């Protein structure tokens, strides 16, 4: 993991954040023209180590081929894995997805990147991806938002509100509870039934003390996040997601989409409850109606929202075909 000092950044809320540092990982070599870069934007609780959590996609001979491309992933502004966030600045100002993207742009400028061949990411990473294409249209040649939206939906804001309430009502145990809620939204009915069903963890338990395997799994996931993620970063990033709206200050979403110059691969998931496929198709169609070059693909998976992290083979094919069709391979 490397860290770059990117200096001061002006935030959408009207204040400036001084001495910002961004943690990042880079794979491959930037060419002399600075135009062979690919940017990966990470989801809510992950980090810059994309070669770990997206391992099937990154490396020599893979779809994001590090022999050809300079692949970068940074921990978001407001995160807790090396970048400036609430753990370093108290009180930490309100940030938005747009602020995260501006911080990434300052990082790329420091690294000498002149053009992104592709920016991609899912969920919160997808929010950043579409914001990149709108904010820096001439800098982004292709973009691939996945399981995401141009404006956070009422359903997604509602889930975030419940998770935030869990933390605010119980600062000690609330993050674990928020994670349990989140995990329910990230998976599908089919997956939970196949993996857990009504399986009981304690076979000899009384009816009163019956403990189901699904309960044990959620407890484990809550405890696991508690051990690795800062609660104030979690709150900060949830709020940034709630506020995400590509049309804010730009005359609305349709006008914002008009700014895009990149060719777009929009990826939905057939079992996603958080960003349902009908929402994904709607955004792809909005782009199409705006005259943009857009390809819509849908992952078929029992993994629900998290399928973009799991279905490496399907996703690799989508991206490979997209790069080939748009001259990137």
TrEMBL record:
AB hydrolase-1 domain boundaries: 37-311
One annotated GO biological process: homoserine metabolic process
Catalytic machinery residues: 123 (nucleophile), 272, 305
Main location: cytoplasm
Localization per record: Cytoplasm
Pathway assignment: Amino-acid biosynthesis; L-methionine biosynthesis via de novo pathway; O-acetyl-L-homoserine from L-homoserine: step 1/1
Alphabetic keyword roster: Acyltransferase, Amino-acid biosynthesis, Cytoplasm, Methionine biosynthesis, Transferase
GO cellular component: cytoplasm
Chain sites annotated for binding substrate: 179, 306
A Pfam entry, by short name: Abhydrolase_1
Catalytic activity reported: L-homoserine + acetyl-CoA = O-acetyl-L-homoserine + CoA
InterPro entries given in the database record: AB_hydrolase_1, AB_hydrolase_fold, HAT_MetX-like
Gene Ontology molecular function terms on file: homoserine O-acetyltransferase activity
Highest taxon above the source species: Bacteria
EC class of the enzyme, as a word: transferase
Enzyme Commission code(s) on record: 2.3.1.31
Sequence similarity: Belongs to the AB hydrolase superfamily. MetX family.
Subunit record text: Homodimer.
Protein name, UniProt field: Homoserine O-acetyltransferase
Provenance organism: Tumebacillus algifaecis
Gene that this sequence comes from: metXA
């Amino acid at each position: 993991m490397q860290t770059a000092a990117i200096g001061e950044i002006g935030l959408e809320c009207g204040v400036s954040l001084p001495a910002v540092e961004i943690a990042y990982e880079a794979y491959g070599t930037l060419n002399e023209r600075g135009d062979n870069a690919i940017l990966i934007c990470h989801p809510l609780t992950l980090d810059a180590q994309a070669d770990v959590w997206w391992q099937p996609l990154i490396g020599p001979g893979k779809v994001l081929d590090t022999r050809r491309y300079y692949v970068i992933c940074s921990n978001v502004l407001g995160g807790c894995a090396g970048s400036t966030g609430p753990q370093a600045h108290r009180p930490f100002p309100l940030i938005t997805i747009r602020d995260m993207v501006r911080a990434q742009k300052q990082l790329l400028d420091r690294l000498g990147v002149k053009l992104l061949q592709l920016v991609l990411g899912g969920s919160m990473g997808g929010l950043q991806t579409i914001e990149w294409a709108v904010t820096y249209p001439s800098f982004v040649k292709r973009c691939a938002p996945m399981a995401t939206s141009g404006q956070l939906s009422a359903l997604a804001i509602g889930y975030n509100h419940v998770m935030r309430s869990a933390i605010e009502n119980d600062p000690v145990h609330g993050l674990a509870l928020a994670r349990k809620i989140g995990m329910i939204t990230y998976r599908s009915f089919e997956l939970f039934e196949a993996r857990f069903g009504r399986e009981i963890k304690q076979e000899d338990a009384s009816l009163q003390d019956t403990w189901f395997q699904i309960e044990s799994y959620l407890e484990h996931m809550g405890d696991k996040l508690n051990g690795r993620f800062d609660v104030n970063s979690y709150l900060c990033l949830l709020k940034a997601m709630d506020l995400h709206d590509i049309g804010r200050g730009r005359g609305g979403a349709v006008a914002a989409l008009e700014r895009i110059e990149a060719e777009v691969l929009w990826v939905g998931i057939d079992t996603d409850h958080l960003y349902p496929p009908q929402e994904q198709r709607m955004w792809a169609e909005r782009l199409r109606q705006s005259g943009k070059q857009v390809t819509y693909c849908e992952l078929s998976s029992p993994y629900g929202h998290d399928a973009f992290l799991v279905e490496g083979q399907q996703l690799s094919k989508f991206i490979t075909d997209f790069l080939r069709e748009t001259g990137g391979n």
